[in-house]
Amino acid sequence: MTALALVAALLGAPKAAAFSIASPQGVDVASWQHPEGAAINWREVSAAGHRFAFVKATEGIGYINPYFAADSQQARNAGMLIGSYHMARPNYSATAQAAEYAAVLATQPQPSLPPVLDIEYAEDLGPVELSAWVREFVTEIERLTGRTPIIYTYRYFWQKNMANTSEFSDYPLWLAAYENRPPRDIPGGWNHMTFWQRADNAVVPGMVTVADVNLFNGSEQQLDDFSADIDVHLGEVLTAGIDLDAIGGRVTELEALGSNNRELVGAILAVAAGALAIGALVVVAQSQGIDIGPATEIVERVRELIAHGDLPVPDLQVMFQTGDYTIGDLLILLKNVQHFAEQIG
């Protein structure tokens, strides 16, 4: 079972479409969107209403996305604003990773969106060390590129692994939060998102598999200005009360993903402790508004993580004890743990 298969099933794979509210929509892609070498038809992606595309460039030390150059050029040729991101691996030098990322960025067509640090793995670092790593990376990438980088993360990671530091709140935030309305609980001292990754399950014309979909927290003109490094005042479009039905219609499971995850996390911990049969998780997931098929997929993911000794019990305990996180936060955590385990396994 792949991470994409689970998320696609869970969210019902809503079809991305042109939209009518002021916030520009876009995608972010990696090699996952090229199963068995399948190409992306970027003209179809653009025609479906997507204004921008972030393409994964690098990860850690020594990895360059083999589709980075082609996706960047083809998305640009289709009339889209293009960007990139580096997935951090904090067990290795921040300076060296910034240097490799900057070198790859130099090959991307210009103009482009600012560079992005994707930080969602702590590896062996605690909050103080991890903050120092992020500080070193953003300082170096800014020195090398002359641009202020964007920070991509998700709520639980920043609050737990970064100790909810507000040190980086002057950097633009790209927040992953799988909900039907803009999240109210933004971490790290930020008072707004610059980009919001709303879901990672959209069926996008031109792609053979699902992809992440995002909204920019401003107008079309502000997006152009932001890409050109013109200082713009953002934060007034993606407000907590906005009605997003105009974007592909309301998605029932996104409503469920915005709900508190304490009951579902408690059930997963009970399964891990041997106090609950794993099949009972289906009933619990359904009680949270998740359909039987997606609920079964959650059970299978938990079963696989337990079988390989990868279930993040300490993180689940924190989620359960605080009671402050959503089902969407839980799914991002489990997806990341599984991805990380597959990469090092």
UniProtKB/TrEMBL annotation:
<dbReference type="InterPro" id="IPR017853">
    <property type="entry name" value="GH"/>
</dbReference>
<protein>
    <submittedName>
        <fullName>Hydrolase</fullName>
    </submittedName>
</protein>
<dbReference type="InterPro" id="IPR018077">
    <property type="entry name" value="Glyco_hydro_fam25_subgr"/>
</dbReference>
<feature type="signal peptide">
    <location>
        <begin position="1"/>
        <end position="18"/>
    </location>
</feature>
<dbReference type="GO" id="GO:0016787">
    <property type="term" value="F:hydrolase activity"/>
</dbReference>
<comment type="similarity">
    <text>Belongs to the glycosyl hydrolase 25 family.</text>
</comment>
<keyword id="KW-0326">Glycosidase</keyword>
<dbReference type="InterPro" id="IPR002053">
    <property type="entry name" value="Glyco_hydro_25"/>
</dbReference>
<dbReference type="Pfam" id="PF01183">
    <property type="entry name" value="Glyco_hydro_25"/>
</dbReference>
<keyword id="KW-0378">Hydrolase</keyword>
<keyword id="KW-0732">Signal</keyword>
